[in-house]
Each structure stands twice: as structure tokens, then as C-alpha cells.
Amino acid sequence: MKKSSIIVLTVVAVIALLAVIYRAVNNAPSASLTANEQVVQVLTDGGCASCHSMAPDLPFYAHFPVIKGMINKHVQEGYATFDILPFMRTMKDESVPNEVDLNKVEQCIIDGSMPMKEYYLVHWGSSITPEKRDRMLAAIKSIRARYFHNPLAAPEFVNEPVRPLPDSIAYHPQKAALGKLLYHDTRLSADGTVSCATCHSLNTAGVDNKRYSEGIKGQLGGVNAPTVYNACFNFAQFWDGRAETLAEQAGGPPLNPVEMGCQSFDEIVARLSEDKAFVKDFIKVYPEGLSQATITDAISEFEKTLVTPNSAFDRYLKGEKSAMTDEQIAGYNLFKQYSCATCHAGASMGGLSYELMGQRANYFEDRELTQKSGLTDGDNGRWAQTKVERDRYRFKTPTLRNVALTYPYYHDGSVETLNQAITMMAKYQVGQELSPEEAQKIEVFLNALTGEYEGKTLTNSNMNK
Question: What pTM was estimated for this model as a whole?
Fold first, then answer.
């Protein structure tokens, strides 16, 4: 046999052997496993925690020259965008996962972006085969149906990462009525000039359309005022998540020296107590009387009424195909294609996670080039509460409901138009440059998220000026 033939046969034999080994080490999880167990197996085999965790157990070659720098970069970027260990714990414990975490795993499987080719070329068992992909997506669908039931959606949309808003959520009518009065009452501020509605007017989509809101004595806040509409769906309140509940959030601004400037709730109670008619009505609902706890509870009950259902998008998800135009539907598909729905998820399309501002490009460096504003305390985001360095520049994702009315955008209110906000989000969060046509379609779709309040389409009186 010729030497060349021997070489060819040897190469073929080696390739065949490698193929056998590849199939042996790259099996899909057994169908007999639960959905949670299948997800855990694929993520474990894929080595996801090697990059997406704080202290990964790296292989021996991670310390080799040249390779070390590349791996450290991947670990830093991976951990910054997604800490996968809490999600894996919920899968193992069969407890409720964070909805955005579930979406992130699903999106990586759909677009094939993980594991990185540099990883699976060395770790053969980590790559996602078609069988693994199908098994994984089916498992995620099962998990989503189990934990994030979607009864309002038409059958073809039950597995979407977003859901229709319900018409309402449970609340106490009598408490909410008192809360509405308190929400609009300037006596909650030290000088009687500012109420909750000053910065979160119901006539202007729950915001004031200013970059920074104005508190007592003309002082300006440090972050853009988020909308109060649909805040009841947030997993935490404020951009930095410093309040866990609506009631806790309601207790913050009255004592903030910049916003409403009171020294304590005792002075608020004293002012309100002078209004005998109000006190009489209040005690009928809260026999224990006026206090910080009862005042903030009443306001939180009112805020539970601020749900804006029945947008064109809601009706579309419920099966009304004509509710959205072809351009809006195309925009929604792009919204999902570019991973926007990964974080802007759930019924409120946001408010379910903290995300790094500038995952794919440095937002703050670029902002400095144009605005020369420097970094502010408000830019620290979640770090202000945790003092964990990973949380610096990380913010609670805002809801996109009624987003066409809630300009300016971002935590710093630095972006005036929705189209610009879309284009910049694609750059800084996804690492993509949208074409003008794509940005326009997504903007048209986002206009379909304007819902109704008290049976009327939400409007913004500032837009008519």
C-alpha cells in the first residue's frame, strides 16, 4: 500500500474515532429526567459556571501564558452579564427561578451564542447539539408554564417571554381611595409644595418628562423619575432597588431632603391630624390611626390600581390578530431577535432584574464625550445599596409599558427620543448596530404598548403643549 494511502486511511480513522468520542461525550439529557434536571445537566456539561460565576473552578490550562488573559476576559464579561449560580440553585431546588434568568438561558440556546466556540473546541461535551437544543427548549417551555402561567394569552403565545397585562390586580378599595387622596396631597412635603403626583402625575403617564425631577426649594433629584403605572409588577422599587415593596417605596420620598424634605413621619401625621374630616374617614378604614405604616400602606393600595391593560399589544397576544399592524408585528419580532424581550419580560416588560448599563460598550465613557457631566452618585445604581463592585452601574430594568409617553429615557434621563433610546440600547446592551429601518419598526412596536387607565387610552398632556 502506498504511503499516501496509509496517511489518508489514518486520517479517516482518526476522524472517525474523534466522531465516536464526540458522540459519546456529548449526549443530550435523558428524557426520563425532569425538566429542571435536564436544564441543570446541559448547563453543567456546557461549563456555563466557568464564566458566569464569581469564583469559577477553572481548568489547569487557564493559567498558561496568553490563554490566561483571554480566559480572564471571558470570565469577567460572563460574570458581569449573568451570574448563573442562583438560577442553577433554583433548578436544583425546584423553586421559582428569576424569569429573566430563564429567558437568558433560553436566548443563548436559540441563538447558539453559548458556549463560546473557544470553549467547546476544547470541551467537546459542552457544545449544543440539535438534540440537546430541542430537549433544552422543551424543558424551558415546561418550566415557564409551571412557574409563569400565562392564561390570558392565545395558545400560540403562551410560551412568549412577555405576557398580557391583567385588567387589574387585587387591592383594598377603601384603602386605595384614601391612598389616592394622600398621593395628591402636598402636606406630605415639608413646605407644602410637593406631592407624589408632582413628579409622577397620572396625566403625564406617571412621570414628569423632566430629566431630573424638582423637589422642595427647587432642588433636583439625581435620577430620572420612573413611571408609577404598573409599578406593582416590579420585583423591587427605585432604579437601585432600595425598596422591596410599594409601601416601602412610598415612605422614601417624604423623608428625602431633596424631594419632599420632612424630618419624620411624625410631622406629616401632625399636619394631617389637623384635618378632622380626613382623620374621621381615615380611622374608619385604619382604626389604628395615622402613622407611617398606615399612610404608606394606603398609598401602596392606590398604586395597585395603576395598571394599564388593553394595549394593542395585549390584544394581539390575546389572539386579536388585527390589533397590531404588520410593521408593529415586524418590530416585535425584531424586539425578540435582538434579545430585548430577554430582560424586558413578563407582564410589565421590565422591572424583574438588575442589569449592567453598558454590557457591550462603555455607556458612561461615551456619555462623557458628549455631555461632560462626569459620573454622579445616581450612576452607581445597585452598588449604592449592596456595595458589591459587580453591582456598580447596574440598574433595575424599567418597564416598557407606555414607554412612548415616558420620555426622557434611561436612569439619567439623558436621551430625549424613543428612537435614539432604541438605537443606543442595541449598541450598549446587545452589541448590535440597528439599521434605521429596524429601529423604526421597533419604535412602532413600542408605541403599541400604550395601554388604558380607567377605560381610556393613556395620554400625556405634556405632549400636547
Answer: 0.92
